[in-house]
Amino acid sequence: MNKRLLFITILVLTLSLITGCSQGGADNSSDEIRVGLNYELSGDNATYGQGLVEGIELAFEEINSSGGILGKQIKAIKIDNQSKDTEATNVSTRLATRENVVVLLGPATSGNTKAAIPPAMQNKIPLISGSATADDVTVDANGNVKEYVFKTCFNDSFQGVMMAQFAFYDLNLRNAAILADSSSDYAQGLSKAFQETFKELGGNILAVEAYQARDTDFKAVLTNLKGLNPEFLFVPGYYEEVGLIIRQARELGLNVPILGGDGYESPKLVEIAGKEALNDIYYSSHYSSQDDSENVVKFKESFKAKYNKEPDAFNALGYDMAYLFADALERAGEADTEKLKKALEATEGFEGVTGVLTIDEKHNPVKSVTILKIENGESVFLKKLDPQ
Q1: CA 64/CA 72 separation, integer angstroms
Q2: How many independent structural domains does the chain possess?
Q3: Range in 244-258, 285-299, 357-371 the model is least confident about
């Protein structure tokens, strides 16, 4: 009897080890394609995460209704990282080691994406972000490419360069003051690139001031900046603080143009700043709903039918990322992470609603940037700027 119990115990332990070893990575024998979604569904950056997921889920719904990928249906494994970098790491680890996913999509912000990268690299599962714009997302401190990390959005440095050129050439402005979030890699990357480019063009940086995420009173620093008589403010940051900065600047009579990046892209910006304060605001983005190209019109119609609202840039970015993944997996020929990685690297001329995209040698996209102007709380498409 004891020998029989011992045999059963050994058998159970052996089966447990086999099962444990089978977890993590894609399962080609499955009748579904499992995709990990690691997003900010609650917390400070929930607007971004929720917007991206809406676009992703619309795309996956369309793909599945058309027969799926490689004859299989996509199953999204969606987990909230709560807008925290520690949770982004935990979610990435779970998806990479326990959920048999072929790819990791997200997170939304650069900081959370960088926190999610180590588990993806360790488990050799491609990670794609549609909105992590920091320059060092896809490369390490020595400039070496992170083999399994890809982006479908342009870099912070590109946004900073483009906005500096736009201010100098299009708005004919020469004297800038900068107010940037010192706690944000995103804001610091934009600020650095903007300063370098604007000074190279012949512009003047009158002052560079800092704030931190969750600050709410900016009147003292804005009063100081007003005393310098800047022609415009460059305020890279996220909508929660930027909305307050814009409102308080206008209350102080600082009515110069305010420029920024895609962190302005949120319907909550109007709620925070107030419609009357949102005039003469310019920002770089990935997409405009006023684009009348055929694929954008079709996307808008499908999005409104599903969600009963107009899509924004993060919806469009999520939609494009989902379709780019599907395109790469079709080219890979099977749900294999190594083949998927190679297919992503070979992406060229992918046509999405945010533009035509080619992945470069650093796993970043080569694509255009959209410039939007806010007047009376409404975003108006101005122009597209192409990379030089």
Answers
A1: 8
A2: 2
A3: 285-299
Do 183 and 270 lie in one domain? The reply is: yes
Assigned domain for 47 exists: yes
Q: How many CB atoms lie within 10 A of CB 8?
A: 10
In a shared domain, residues 88 and 174: no
pTM metric for this prediction: 0.77
Q: Are residues 245 and 279 in the same domain?
A: yes
Strands 232-234 and 258-260: parallel
69/156: higher pLDDT: 69
Q: Is 68 exposed, middle or buried (0-12, 13-18, 19+ CB in 10 A)?
A: middle
Range of the domain at 319: 32-153+292-367
What are the tens digits of pLDDT across the range 333-363? 999 999 999 999 999 999 999 988 999 999 9
| CA atoms of 69 and 325, how far apart (whole Å) | 10
Report the CATH number that the domain containing residue 117 is assigned in CATH.
3.40.50.2300
Identify the pLDDT of residue 25: 57
The predicted-structure confidence for 98-116, as pLDDT tens digits, reads as follows: 999 999 999 999 999 999 9
Same domain? For 189 and 271 the reply is: yes
